[in-house]
Amino acid sequence: MRLRTAATAATVLLTAASLPGAAGTARAADPGPAVTRVADTQLDPQAIYFVSYDGLVNNNSFQKNGLLTYKGHQYAAWYTADRTAVVARRALGASSWQTVRLAHRLSTDDSHNVISMGLSRVDGRLHINLDSHSDGFFYLKSAAGLLDDPAGRAWASDAFGPVQTTLDGLALTSQFTYPQFVATPEGRLQLSYRAGVSGNGRNALAEYDGTKWTALGEWSGSTGTYTSEHGSSTARNMYLHGIDYGPDGRLHAFYTWREQSNAVMCHNGGLTNHDTGYVYSTDRGRTWRNQAGTAVGTTGGSDKVTVDDPGTVVDPLNPDHSLMNQESQATDSTGLPQAIISYVPGRFGQCTTGYAADRTAHGRAFHLVSNAAGDWKKTEIPVPLDSSQRTRLVLDKYDNAYAVLPYGRIAAASKSSGYTDWKTLYDAGALNAFGEVVVDDTRLAQDGVLSYMYQRKSSGTTPSALRVIDFRLPS
Fold this sequence. Notes:
By secondary structure, the protein is mainly β. It has two helices and 33 strands. It starts with a strand and ends with a strand. Residues 1-26 have low confidence and may be disordered.
């Protein structure tokens, strides 16, 4: 695997070309990144608010999906002030939301216990998984066809089935965390989750075909020995930056490893996260391969993706820089993967002693992109994080990259520059947002709008407003 930095290799891509059949004329260059704010609507004036693990339960950026768009309607899910789970919808462009209160209340003040939504296109159902952190989960789904005919189907509580503690009878694990739904190209729905606990867990998949759920099994391993210059660890978990299908049907997954033992760090106030890895699957998540195409793991089989698999690390980094887990990823229109990672660069010191404070003071986000030859280029986004929290990555129709930073700030870089011209497009100061935001990964391709959900800062456990803001991108 080859890694290049912007300082050593910046390739400017040509974006003007001759138009067929029109000698002497040239097509205008594709537009660069731009944002135009078009709306800011309120979901809830009094959503639940408490800070846990540096985050909010309604706005952890790793939710997939806290916002979801399909057939001209957008869907949102959250917990309101009385802890009730809520799901809402609106027609795209509408200022008001229709809300349904679900028969479940948040069980504990833990920001991991997010609500995630998914869509099974094979039967038009909305699926919801919620309220879990290394314990049992809760699940429900809508009536068939509810999302296929939003104008003709009432948005009411009786459109949803009962709350379950299995997937329609399929029990997965007693230590369940991080539900992420992903739709397959055929319209089936997959559920990614972690079995186990932080520092000793495995990623797994289940799949819904429109009739039933099937457990595909675990695909990452927690065993083996990782040794740093400080010490060793014999257990870990893989934290996904995402799991997404590209336009060619390839399933992409960036990740970082978290070691169980603090012995691998220079100081126990840091994070045991290390290295950015990447694998992909061409058979709907059954077999996992490194960038060179070598199989490195099988879902449900004895050979899992492990910390010592060759050719999987695309950006090496030791555990001394408070590398963040569960950042973000995207795939461009040609099927090439990109990711954002963040940590404290070495110029600020080679040992973080308090990850939250050090990341807030010195943390920076970096953009990783692969070319067709398998070279990886890494560019620092020149905007201080000013936060311990995560950044989200999205691409517009021209493959320009947008980083939605903590507090809702937006920075962007053009594809034509080789993603080297990062600059701030929206400073978000007026939002008074807490930190991380939940981006609608599904909307941009449908109407050219970047939407994200944010919650206003509060104090203690005083509820605050939860809102969705929309930006028009180049189209």
